[in-house]
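Need tokens for this chain, all 407 residues.
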Amino acid sequence: MDHTESRDGTDEPTDDTRTTPAPGPAPAPVSEPASASASGPVPASGRTLDPAPRPDPAPQPQPAPESAKKRRRPWVRRVRRTVLVLALVLIVPLVAVEAALRVNYMGDPADGTHTRNRDAMWLGHAWVDGRKKDADVTALAGRLKDTGVRDLYVHTGPLEHDGTLPKSVYPRARWFIDAVHRELPGVRVQAFLGDVLANGGPEGLELSDAATRAEVVRSAGQVLDTGYEGVHMDLEPLHSGDEHYLDLLDDLRKLTKDRDAQLSVAAHQIDPLPHLHSVAGLVADHPKWWSQEFFGQVARRVDQIAVMSYDTARLFESTYGGYVAQQTSLALEVTPPTTHLLMGLPFYYENNPSHWGHAETVAAAVRGARLGLSRTDPDRELFGLAPYIDFAATETNWKEFEDGWVR
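Here are the structure tokens for all 407 residues:
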């Protein structure tokens, strides 16, 4: 996220070397008659002749005055001043933030900050569209058996932009739910429903439309009728302070309570600096962060809230871990103890400006979450980690998760 850039501020060298013509051979001296006048020789005719014209010497370049050498052009001064201001306003604070995150990653997590057997995991769509078989569920159960994963968010959408959900997109959902209950007793299966919001582009789901929100609630009831034990909402990009989203959660909570089901959400990260979401909103249509206040408003309306604590643009493993520690503390401060808080883990590897694979490791995320938990609420029971996502996970991801958290 943060890149620093140095600029060369050296002056362009001034060349003071001057080139002069090479001298030619000197003319031979001419003897004048004794009777010659000052104006030239006198011929026999008595007329005075004009002396022969001589070519003008080549003009010699004059050295520039010392003051001209030192004088700077006005636009150069303005550019340098602007670069200096940008460095002070942008680069210096970013360096300070990175240093603070590095410090935040220091120290040792408290004893006992390990799994509470309340972890969750995001699963891909292949589990409900017919691509997976019984053998795949058996392999998944073997992988999860000795971990603390107790909730599976299986992708069942996406929703249509009008809030509806065609049943044709999850034809094998009932089979998967039954297979999980058989292979992993006590593990809940929740329907992971999502869509792109209209505020992130020209098309998408419009939360401000009451009819669309009503369709989302009907779609949630539809998946609960299929046998899912909860609804997991992931709507992005969601602006901080969106009152229509809070209205939707209120309506969904009524539904899930009546069905004795879970309501969970995937949540944006919290402002790492005060009001950063407002500042970012000046330069981006969909700022990345929520205010801590808005995060708390969402957390109080749901049973589970899972922070998408990846894609942070951190360049170093230590600063990424420090960032996760900070996010964990910020989330714990405003999440009521009756709401289950989960911190997301990056179970995938990619390199782009928002996610550097060498920095965003599972090991750093686990350690960061433990540090944040240790410093803020080490005895919190309703706390866990949530790997994202099963189909991209590597053996290294699983090992770091198990060694750092499950042990």
